[in-house]
């Protein structure tokens, strides 16, 4: 059966995977469109690697349906699926040169020698390794080895490229460089990328869409901006970056919905905020970069959410100053100092002083209360 060009690149329909009594995936459904850079993001044990292995055909489904380009592939072995995989450990053949590593899969497919040579040159140039064909893996840096693994996988021109935490073994500086390179390569080749990571920054910097996973389920799917600014629950908000959470409940005020803290203070929330959540419990989330702190909040025509407190700590972090404020509603963290002083004077002026913290209500989000982001308990979920 030929593939359906109108279908998504990958579709999981109510997919479950069990290892004995342990549930690694629990009824997961998602669509990955053709040409996306799609990230599966979550803590250890959340099910992201299991999802990747199911797509690649390395483990069988327990229940549900998996389609690639509209074709049901539940029972197809890996080499009969139009996918290829880049692993964290590169899996290069040490006794082969760079060119021979890239050519290996093409020769296994029986491609003519001339076509093999053209593709080897094309994809080594794509990953900026033209001229490295005669070297051996032991002569390469970690970043270069990763590029060879990427060239080898792409040279077969798969419909889907699976990347299993491929940057995990690299140091921080090289990892950031490779994030930029992977984004560039994805734009050039247009292949569907499915990228597994537990690193929030990686996902935010590269993905067109992200699926945040926990406990074998998908908690939210959206663009990086949607996931970061409009998380659906406390787990997603807490896992993606740093967040301030205030406990309370939604109330209907004269001008629409508002958020009432446990101490009775009422704060404005974005217009259109839903007044109900599945379990009825909610929290108000605001990112530290949206929170300002100073002696007094400035007056202005637009309403602001304002809370009084006492600054308990000021830490210079290089490109910003992190100010911690204890309030009746809980601890709040701010990255914005409002005042006349320069950064060096902030600590003297703020620590152990009465202050106000405030933010634009449009930069806050009401999320479903519940679990915070912690590593999962599944032994094999990945």
Label this structure with key terms.
six-stranded mixed β-sheet, single chain, 382 residues, disordered C terminus, alpha+beta, 33% strand
Topology diagram in text:
Layout: E1 10-19, E2 22-32, E3 37-41, H1 48-56, E4 63-68, E5 71-72, E6 83-86, H2 98-108, H3 113-126, H4 142-155, E7 160-164, H5 172-189, E8 192-197, H6 200-206, E9 209-214, E10 217-222, H7 224-229, H8 234-239, E11 244-253, E12 256-261, E13 266-268, E14 282-286, E15 292-294, E16 305-316, E17 321-327, E18 330-334, E19 336-337, H9 343-350, E20 354-359, E21 364-368
Parallel strand pairs: 3-8, 3-9, 6-7, 7-8, 15-19
Antiparallel strand pairs: 1-2, 1-4, 4-5, 9-10, 11-12, 11-14, 12-13, 14-21, 15-20, 16-17, 16-20, 17-18
Description:
The protein has 382 residues and is of the alpha+beta class. Helix content is 24%, strand content 33%. Strands 6-7-8-3-9-10 form a six-stranded mixed beta sheet, with helices on both faces. A six-stranded mixed beta sheet has the order 18-17-16-20-15-19. The chain has a five-stranded antiparallel beta sheet with strand order 13-12-11-14-21, with no helix packed on it. The two termini are 32 Å apart.
């Amino acid at each position: 059966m030929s593939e359906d060009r109108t279908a998504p690149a990958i579709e999981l329909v109510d997919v479950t995977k069990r290892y004995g009594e342990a549930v690694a995936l629990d009824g997961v459904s998602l669509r990955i469109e053709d040409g996306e850079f799609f990230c599966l993001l979550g803590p250890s044990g959340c099910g992201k690697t299991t999802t990747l292995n199911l797509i690649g055909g390395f483990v069988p489904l327990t229940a549900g349906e998996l389609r690639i380009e509209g074709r049901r592939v539940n029972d197809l072995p890996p080499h009969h699926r139009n996918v290829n995989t880049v692993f964290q450990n590169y899996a290069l053949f040490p006794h082969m040169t760079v060119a021979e590593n890239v050519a290996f899969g093409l020769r296994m497919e029986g491609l003519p020698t001339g076509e093999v040579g053209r593709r080897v040159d094309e994809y080594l140039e794509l990953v900026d390794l033209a001229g490295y064909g005669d070297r051996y893996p032991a002569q390469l840096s970690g970043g270069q080895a990763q590029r060879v693994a990427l060239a080898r996988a792409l040279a077969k021109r798969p419909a889907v490229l699976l990347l299993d935490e491929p940057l995990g073994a690299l140091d921080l500086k090289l990892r950031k460089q490779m994030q930029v390179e992977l984004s560039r390569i994805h734009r050039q080749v247009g292949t569907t990328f499915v990228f597994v990571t537990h690193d929030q920054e990686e996902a935010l910097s590269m993905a067109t869409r992200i699926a945040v996973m926990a406990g074998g389920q998908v908690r939210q799917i959206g663009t990086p901006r949607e996931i970061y600014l409009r998380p659906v629950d406390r787990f997603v908000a807490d896992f993606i970056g740093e967040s301030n959470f205030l406990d309370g409940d939604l109330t209907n005020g004269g001008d629409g919905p508002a958020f009432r803290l446990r101490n009775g203070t009422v704060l404005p929330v974005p217009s259109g905020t839903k007044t109900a959540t599945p379990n009825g419990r909610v929290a108000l989330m605001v990112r530290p970069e949206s929170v300002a702190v100073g002696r007094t909040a400035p007056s202005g025509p637009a309403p602001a959410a304002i809370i009084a407190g006492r600054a308990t700590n000021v830490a210079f972090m290089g490109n910003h100053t992190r100010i911690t404020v204890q309030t009746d509603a809980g601890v709040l963290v701010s990255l914005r100092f409002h005042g006349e002083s320069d950064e060096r004077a902030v600590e003297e002026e703020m620590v152990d002083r009465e202050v106000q913290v405030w933010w634009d209500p449009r930069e806050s989000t009401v999320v479903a209360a519940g679990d915070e982001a912690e590593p999962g308990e599944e032994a094999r979920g990945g």
